[in-house]
Amino acid sequence: MAVFTRGFGGRRPDSERPVPPGQYLTDDFPVLSIGPTPNVDTSTWQLTIRTEEGAEHRWDWAALQALPAEDVTVDIHCVTRWSKQDTHWRGVPVDAFFADVETAAEYVVAHSFGGYTTNLPLDDLLDGRAWVVTEYEGEPLEPLHGGPVRLLVPHLYLWKSAKWLRALTLHLDDEPGFWEQNGYHLYGDPWSEQRYG
């Protein structure tokens, strides 16, 4: 099943395809990270969802692989002004992880191996809007691009698609993550140029 972000309605020549304001197109996939690239072994990898009440739900690598994955084709947009069109990913919709999670929370903080965090409204992760991905362009996701597992939230700037994903914690209030505490916008909509707070 293919999923498309805003701007897709049929294939148009690249010159006519919209990109968010202030963005330029690239065929590259620049690597931008803070700190060293974590070495995350799939034999010990685990994803935890922790509710605002402290209840925890966990998936190891085998449990992740057993969930129904989708092939996703989306455009991605970096806050540093590059956009890449028609990127191909494979991953599990975030909805699948929340099927048995009871929560009144409206916000999520994504946590990465290495200590990175970013905040998102829970609604932006559900209803087919976000994925936990393990493949890019038909290959296992490389560590430089967030492998073995990253969050993919293509309708927001790419800093919201946390690399090296290890946990999602649920919160009643919006709690800024790393870049948000350092001047980036709390939400990060590229179509509204929400780069900085």
TrEMBL record:
InterPro entries on file: OxRdtase_Mopterin-bd_dom (IPR000572), OxRdtase_Mopterin-bd_sf (IPR036374)
Lineage top rank: taxon: Bacteria
Region (Disordered): 1-22
Domain Oxidoreductase molybdopterin-binding: 35-179
One protein family per Pfam: Oxidored_molyb
UniProt xrefs under PANTHER family: OXIDOREDUCTASE MOLYBDOPTERIN-BINDING DOMAIN-CONTAINING PROTEIN (PTHR43032:SF4), PROTEIN-METHIONINE-SULFOXIDE REDUCTASE (PTHR43032)
Name recorded for this polypeptide: Sulfite oxidase-like oxidoreductase
Species this protein is from: Isoptericola chiayiensis
